[in-house]
Specification:
The chain is α+β, with helices and mostly antiparallel strands. It is built from eleven helices and ten strands. The strands form three sheets. It has a four-stranded mixed sheet with strand order 1-5-6-10. Strands 2-3-9 form a three-stranded antiparallel sheet, with no helix packed on it. The longest helix is centred in the last third of the chain and has 30 residues. The chain is globular and about 70 Å long.
Amino acid sequence: MPLDQSSLLHEAAALVPWMQERAGQLDRDAAFPDQEIERLRHLGALTMPLPVQGRERNDALADGLASLLILVGQGNLSVGRVLEAHINTMHLVARYGTEAQQRDTEAAARDGCLFGLWVTDPPAGGLRMQRAGDRIRLHGGKQFCSSAGHAGGALVTAADEAAGTRMLVLRLGIGETVSPLPAPLQGMRASTTGAVDFTGCDVPAGAILGELGDYLREPDFSAGAWRGSAVALGGLIALLDVAVAQLRESGRLDSPHGQARIGQAMIARETSRLWVRAAARAAEDLAADTAQRVATVGLGRIAVETACLDAMRLVQRSLGLSAFRQGTAVERICRDLSTYLRQPAPDEVLTGSASWFTANPEATVTA
């Protein structure tokens, strides 16, 4: 039966208060959100149709995926991070995989297999692959692996014999070793980010996804950042909801100075909403110019990052020291957002995007 997108989003919205209630305890325990992922799987979120699976622009699929990621980020940013990585993997398999790989990956996800996306190399050296007939021997590992120890599969990047970058889609439980990071991250504790060592693991050659260099190929490499921006927007929405409730409870909501700060934060929130919508539609417009898609998503990513940072400052200034009490929702969301927003190369993204639009003054950003 085809997935009913509107029903999925309606049921996902109903999960948000429940996820918010559990978020604090999951953060304190650094516990993986197994129940949240299982409920999202039951809704069909792990196998949601992706815009890349079409051949034409499909704003409805882009809008639906954005809405899902926003809702999950609103419930718990760590859950949003985990789901975003899974969807990124499904996107890349749909984009570069064979029919058999697409079929097998979707079947695994339907059965409850959560996929991680592990592409960051540790300082001592990353993952390497050595082919031997129809098998591949792995050596080395990855770090900053969200869902480490809980994902049933992962898309990883590995250097081949000629030092070229290859993608592999792995089913886990193949002898990999999971360990905590030497210094744990300040935020996103429930995403259980760790290090994974694949040394000695043996996998079939059919695990190779796509061709040499496909992982870095545009627009997928850069334009996929809009999905992280959508999750961050969900966190921003939750932050403002909690801040307004706390100000109302303390009797400080009617302060003109507080109202001015909240008003500015609301502008940042709605600006982010517009950018996420525009970035999602641009990124998933398969017929559009590649450079324009990348540039649009780049501006959107920086716009959402700036909005979140501005909103955190405004909320903290409005609430004062209570915003920094450990274990409170505001403190946790700010800590998670601060960590989640630290994506690579923000200056390069901003200047590259600005360079494209200044060289193409007739181009506009529209949703």
